[in-house]
Amino acid sequence: RETVSVLIDKEDATGIQEKAVFGDLDDPSNKLRDVLFYHRAIRAYWSGYTERCRYYSEKCMNLFGQGAQPIACVAKFFFGLNAIDLLRKNRHVSKNKEGLRKAIAAMKDAAANSEWNFMNKLRLLEAEQKSITQNHWLAIDLYDASIQSAKKSGFIHEQGLACEKAGLYFKNKDSNNEKALEYFQQALECYEEWGSKMKVDFIKKKMDGLNMYVV
Asked: What are the tens digits of pLDDT across the range 16-43?
């Protein structure tokens, strides 16, 4: 509920007392800690807090060892995306390169078992990887593949995320404001359908900043 509150209500508090739900967070035998830290990492990622996401991702590393469990695969996916964002900022470079490599490998395994659930995630990680290695046309193809895969699977939030990432790529790397706006418009529609006011506001700000440059 806290995660939903952050994404849908723009960080309005739900009044949930975490300690009452998850117990003593300083107790290493408390297995609910990893779940709490996982949700904190996911919230931080969607909110754009890369260092916070890294911090909580590292605190829930026990989940990463749970093989093909869905929560472990999703954790690795966001850990990989966050690693790319940190690489763009030249932070923890060697560690994040290795984290990205492991995330992509994990998504390949997950997609082999369930293309429906994980192919869009794999393609987005690959697109982001190609975007930072200057492989322009392949990056674009992979962004589009991720968008179509997420749409096919009905993952409207991840479809929006792939559109957002493609828009940011065109804005920041290619300086193609028209294409950036196209992808941002798609992201906006996805996030509106998803119901995330926080992400809708974020995309609108990006679009407002570009509209003055597009005739």
From this structure: 556 566 666 667 677 788 888 899 999 9
Angle value at C-alpha 102, between 139 and 30, nearest 5 degrees: 130
Tokens of 87: 């690489």
Q: Which whole-number Å values give the CA distances from 21 to 13, 15, 188, in the listed order?
A: 15, 12, 34
- Structure tokens belonging to residue 154: 């009905």
- Report the alpha-carbon distance of residue 182 to residue 184 in Å, rounded: 6
Which residues 6+ apart lie within 8 Å of 154 measured at CB? none
CA angle 83, 200, 203 (to 5 degrees): 60
This prediction's pTM: 0.88
Closest CA to 72 of 46, 29, 41, 47: 41
In whole angstroms, what is the distance from residue 130 CA to residue 84 CA? 10
Summarised one tens digit per residue, pLDDT across range 144-201 is 999 999 999 999 999 999 999 999 999 998 678 999 999 999 999 999 999 999 999 9
Give the number of other CB atoms < 10 A from CB of residue 117: 15
Q: Which of 85, 149, 82 is nearest to 122 (CA)?
A: 149
Residues 6 or more apart whose CB falls under 8 angstroms from that of 18 comprise: 2, 25, 36
